[in-house]
Amino acid sequence: MMDYSNKIKEIAKKLLEEKTVDSVIGFKKGTLPMMTMPILINEPGKTDDLYWDSFCNMNLANYLPKRAEKVGIFAKGCDSRNIVNHIVENQIKREQLHIIGIPCEGMLDKRKIRALLGEKELKEVSESKTSVTLKGEGFEETIEKKDYLQDNCKTCLHRNPVIYDELLGDLLAENQGPDPYDDVEQIEKIGSGERWDFFQGLIKNCIRCYACRNACPLCYCPTCFVDESDPQWVGKSDDSVDTMTFHLLRAYHCAGRCTDCGACEQACPMDINVRLFTRKLNKDALKLYGWEAGLKLDERPPLDTYRPDDYDEFIR
Amino acid sequence: MTDKMIKKDQFMGFLHKLKNDYNVFIPAKEDDNFYNFTALGEKETFDFDYKNTRLSPKSFALPQSEKMFEFSLNKSDKDANILREAASDSSNTAIVGIRPCDANAFKVINANFDNPEFRDPWWTKHRDSLTLIGLGCNEPDSTCFCTSAGGGPFDEKGLDILLFDLDEHILIRPITKKGGKLLETADINQEADSSLKQKADEVKAASEKKISSHVATDKLKSKNALELFNASFWDDIAFSCINCGTCTFLCPTCWCFDIQDEVNYDQGDRIRNWDSCMFPLFTLHASGHNPRPEKVQRVRQRFMHKLKYYVDKYDNGIACVGCGRCVKYCPVNIDIREVIRLMNE
User: Fold this and answer.
1) From CA B3, how far away is CA B319, in angstroms rounded?
2) Which of A76, A180, A35 is nearest to B328 (CA)?
3) What is the tens place of the pLDDT at every residue in A10-37?
4) Which residue of A5, A178, A232, B199 has the fewest C-beta atoms within 10 A of its own C-beta?
5) CB spacing of B332 vs A37 below 8 angstroms
6) Which of A59, A25, A30 is nearest to A215 (CA)?
7) Tell me, what DSSP letter sits at residue B56?
8) Which residues pair with B7 in a beta bridge?
9) H helices within chain A, ranges in order?
10) From the CA of B43, how many Å to the nearest CA of chain A?
């Protein structure tokens, strides 16, 4: 994916020079290995800052709401699905966007690589098509990318962007299963008491920093329910009831909207697998409504529609 | 007070002995992939190779949530509507293995919570109960910039005791009376020999040389606050920010808090919680007006507070100890070293 960097610079420069767009949103190389920074470029002379590698974990669709200008945006499969969400939910207009789709072979999970290295400090990371070499004081280790992908990338069924104005590279063959909800089914199988304990254990380290929420393109509410003070819906302390309330309500607010991009997990400073909350709802949306979020521009998500001819009697 | 020594294989014995008189906390991993300070039990062992804890130890004196008062709204109670101070534990606690930067952070916060104008009783009570036993950093990370932030890998100023990890031996340096008392309690009385002291000096000097990250802060004090406030770089710095609380909550020196009343039927608690200048609610007025409605204003506030307002107000250096946590864990790589560079230019 490294070879995308040069093409990205060229495309952005052209778009800005030809005034196809007013600004471009992409990634910049981070100041540390495995880190990248979302950036906004609005001058053709500054496009050299743009960069791409397998650590572009954040979802750039997060930076679109409220933008007034015409924007070029680089989009992986998941980012593109969140762009569709934004268009359907009126957060940005299709005609405001020039989407450069990037077929994505999966992003690497910096949490897994940190766990592998333990207290050894990573000073340099370089990647080839299938492997990554990690270097630091007194060690050099090459790992297979497939073993260190983000969990959501392992089960991703939409690696190709679903909406784009131009495409970078060739479309990839999409994964055909296995059923990506094995882990959810495991949790469904355990009894309710044990399941409650499981989820309590999952959030035991949560510090309520809201990185998961804020990294999420779905969370664009002008005021999140946890930030309401009049009335106040949820306590602000580290009481586990309040922490759980935040996670459960946030997850439910994402039902039928989550694209499983994994930005929440990559943003979490406490390594919490927050996707386990949203994935159950993604599964339900799929099983109950045959719905995967962010694939269709002309259909509203199942949980924000009402049809007088709905086949379920209870809702009519 | 003179330097003491023990053999490394006696260190756990020393810690367990301390438990007679102190609550003892050491960095431990539990079932996570990172270290945090954990009460010493039977299964924990001290890992001298640990780098630092994911969360800073500030919570020992400034817990994320602390019940300050209790109250009753039941009019038939004789103390209805009167705040009663909540009971809290301030028994002797030893934090073993705290890094010098994090100990220095207690000094930074102290300037705000214990000064001639204000004295925060909760902070001071907790702080006084702590004995900080630091572990010098033999192998600082490339994100460590303590020497640019008024400290160093073996800096003593925030500590009661400093430990030097010298292969088979630990050199134990009492720094304050409190530290000396702890060593007496634990019968640590073998004097360090001169060769070990020399080795300690060498390790310290070598470590200081290993600090590869340097940022200049010399011009911050003389800069015009309004010019910095209106500088053009804030928009660029703030673009990627997602306004989460990772930097502020992991930071050992971010001390801002919010006080909330939580009421269950007619019984209530007044609780002090960590707050973050990254959150819109932080500055929301009761009128509905928010003086910092956009993220750029909130991002600017965090850096201006640490690197300009604090510097001007307390003349105590910057309110950053160079621990590198925000550098490592900011999900969008906002690197405070780069911000310092821009502000100090």
Assistant:
1) 31
2) A35
3) 999 999 999 999 999 999 999 999 999 9
4) A178
5) yes
6) A59
7) -
8) B169
9) 4-17, 77-88, 110-117, 151-154, 182-189, 192-202, 211-215, 240-253, 263-267, 275-289
10) 20
